[in-house]
Amino acid sequence: MRPDTPADHIAEAERLLRTATQYPEDDEPLLLQAAAHLELAGDRERASSLYDRLLASGADNPLLVKALQAANLWEYGHEAEARALITGIRTAAPTDPAPWEIIAETLESHDELEASHDCFTTAITLLLTPGDDDVPYDTQSLLTGRHRVRRMLGRPHDEWDALADKVHTAHATISLDELHDPNRLWSLGSDNPAELRAEIARLRSELGSYRSALSRPFPVAVLHWPEPELTELLTAYPGLTSEYPSHAAHLTDIETSLRDLASTGTANLGIVTSTVPSYEAFAASEQSSPANADLLPQYATTLAARGRALPWPPAKTAPCWCGSGTAYRDCHGVSRT
Length: 337
Fold this sequence. Notes:
By secondary structure, the protein is mainly alpha-helical. The chain has 16 helices and 3 strands. Helix 4 packs parallel to helix 6 (about 95-110) and helix 6 runs parallel beside helix 8 (about 135-155). Residues about 210-215 have low confidence and may be disordered.
């Protein structure tokens, strides 16, 4: 069940902390998830201690952790420390979009609009190539955030705003100009049902991307079995042949499933690579048999929660997710428009 109350978020944080103890090699994504739930529960001091713990133990992505820590600290009265962290992140100029998004939105939420705009612009200039419309999923929210801040500042559209519009309209019916219109907030006080329905539609369009980096949701992921692993799996558990009639069919099913999910508006999709020993260990932890096909989606979700998912789709010119070494657009992305 989706956590809705502070108690639910505390319970979910405790579950993630237990999982981190069980899988210490993957504790960073699990502790970040736990800290996010603690923040949502209002326990910001405890969340801060988790960020400190990650930084002290040598986090794989320390700038991301510092960005999350800065956002959290500012919310409970430690503005000076938060500003110092933000300054350090901007100086470091990370190539990961997540720290940029978090610090830009932190500044935005505290009415530091000029500084927020500067963060968004610096990040986009660093991470994207002008004229290239193939924007990776994890960078799209930077374009959207910059567009939002520019609307609040009353800035005219530029080439990055045009790209933000293009990316947004590919999966939404409400334009960014309408979505980010500062005056639309007045409609929240309206007693006109049509205006309220329109506002609900706008908010639904906005949900799922706004402040996505803070919550760090793990992707909706599907399993990918490399051919040797799939052969070993089916040799040991032939009953799973109905799930995987052949390796070629398995690869086709992955791409088809992800495209179907994307067509319904599902965002943050990913692929997790499976191994037989890992799957057998997961089945044992669930006190079940690896031959149980019902475990497969649970295994995918667990790997995604442990930070093992690769974002889908890859850039058109990037190597295909299947491991062929061919560019995605010439392999499983060949018919993708």
